[in-house]
Task: inverse folding
């Protein structure tokens, strides 16, 4: 990684065998004052977690399983754009597929290649740190479920090359949050696999169905149905009727 890395993300990293979750290891680093861009990478997680309390399984040697420490100097209101920046970085680094809002990377045929988990520590109006966790299927493991895809199905890949590129794109997209958030959103929309589709989304307020028409400047998903517009801040999107 040292030889391939560009920029400062990954300047400090640990490559570990088995951990509970790379998020937990990185949290301890954060509390010990680790610098932004520090990375914890592991082959195996005993308690890998996904979004919405789900478990996240990854096969040693086959996937990239890691977490990156961020110390955003952003207002709290910009925090919802962070998942989109991470998703865009993932899509740019892998060079394949599209994004299911907010930040799942899907293969061209709609199977999940990667997911992102963001855990933020907020105190008052300040974001103390964010643990940005990524799980990416690189090689096709025997146990990979049919609804998941691996990057190698779309061309030859090397895990360390993908990792180096991913860290570089994460650093660039993260910087754009401050410098060019509207440009970032434009690029995100262009990679969206959700916009223009009839979707069903589970929100804390219940299920909403409709046409996904836009990503609003605050990062929320705009869904229209029978002349009504809904803005969704968080939820699980599913395409309908495809
Ligand atoms: C999702 O799509 O639900 C998000 C999955 C995120 C998984 C990664 S793997 C590295 C990091 N450590 C974890 O325990 N989870 C994230």
Result:
């Amino acid at each position: 990684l040292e030889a391939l890395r560009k920029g400062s993300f990954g300047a400090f990293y640990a490559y570990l065998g088995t951990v509970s979750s790379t998020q937990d290891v990185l949290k301890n680093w954060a509390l010990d004052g680790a610098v932004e861009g520090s990375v914890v990478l592991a082959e195996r997680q005993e308690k890998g977690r996904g979004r919405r309390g789900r478990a996240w399984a990854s096969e040693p040697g086959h996937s990239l399983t890691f977490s990156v420490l961020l110390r955003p100097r952003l207002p709290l209101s910009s925090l919802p754009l962070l998942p989109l920046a991470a998703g865009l970085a993932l899509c740019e680094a892998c060079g394949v597929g599209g994004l299911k809002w907010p930040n799942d990377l899907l293969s061209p045929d709609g199977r999940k290649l990667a997911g992102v988990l963001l855990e933020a520590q907020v105190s008052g109006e300040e974001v103390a740190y964010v643990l940005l966790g990524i799980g990416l299927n690189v090689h096709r493991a025997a146990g990979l479920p049919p609804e998941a895809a691996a990057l190698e199905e779309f061309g030859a890949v090397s895990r360390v090359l993908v990792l180096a590129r991913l860290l570089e794109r994460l650093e660039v997209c993260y910087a754009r949050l401050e410098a060019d958030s509207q440009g970032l959103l434009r690029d995100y929309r262009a990679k969206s696999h959700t916009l223009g589709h009839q979707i069903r989304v589970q929100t804390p307020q219940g299920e909403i169905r409709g046409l996904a028409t836009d990503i609003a400047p605050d990062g929320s998903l705009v869904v229209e149905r029978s002349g009504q517009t809904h803005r969704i801040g968080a939820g699980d999107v599913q395409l309908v009727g495809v």
Q: What stands out?
A: Residues 198-239 form a domain with the SH3 type barrels. fold (CATH 2.30.30.100). Residues 21-23, 45, 48-51, 54, 56, 65-67, 104, 115-117, 133-135 surround biotin (CB under 6 Å).
